[in-house]
Design a protein that fits this description.
The chain is α+β, with helices and mostly antiparallel strands. It contains 2 helices and 8 strands; from the N terminus they run H-E-E-E-E-E-E-H-E-E. The chain is globular and about 40 Å long.
Length: 157
């Protein structure tokens, strides 16, 4: 049986400390999961009645998430883009080729517990609004919309 000499012990110590440093760096980079959730509503006219129009969830993970949604019908050309950027999500709405709304949602917003709404009008007079909030997972319920009537226990909720 051979016993490693001093050089062998130094190589082992160097390899062990390097491995430990890599593991600590990876653990620090992971951090808690953060998600930007959103609901979409649409209205056909004056905005008195809003109908659900879908929604989604996007993970904030340093810029590797991206997506876009385009919509169109007669006189209703628009696109919505959600792009992952470092530490957040950039949201841009284009109607008939013109940017009409844009926001950047970062970790501070996602951690705040706040609700933010982005509303815009299409060229045919229809309206859309997106409600955004942050959560540690995709199934988190939306915070109440300020000024909106909220369901009560008697409403079957």
């Amino acid at each position: 049986m051979s016993v490693p000499g001093r050089a062998g012990r130094q190589r082992w110590k160097f390899g062990q400390s390097t491995q430990l440093a890599v593991m600590m760096t990876a653990a620090a980079a992971c951090g808690p999961d953060r998600y930007l959730l959103y609901e979409i509503e649409s209205s056909d006219g004056d905005g008195d009645v809003w109908m659900p129009h879908g929604g989604g969830c996007q993970r904030l993970n340093g810029g590797s998430s991206a997506g876009s949604v385009s919509g169109g019908a007669v006189d209703e050309a628009f696109s919505v883009s959600m792009t992952g950027v470092s530490g957040g999500v950039e949201f841009i709405v284009t109607v008939n080729g013109e940017v009409v709304a844009g926001r950047r949602f970062g970790e501070a917003f996602v951690d705040s517990g706040e609700l933010q709404t982005v509303a815009f009008e299409l060229s045919n007079g229809r309206k859309r609004r997106y409600h955004f909030w942050g959560a540690p997972g995709c199934g988190a319920p939306r915070p109440p919309i300020e000024g909106a009537e909220q369901p009560t226990a008697g409403d079957g909720q």
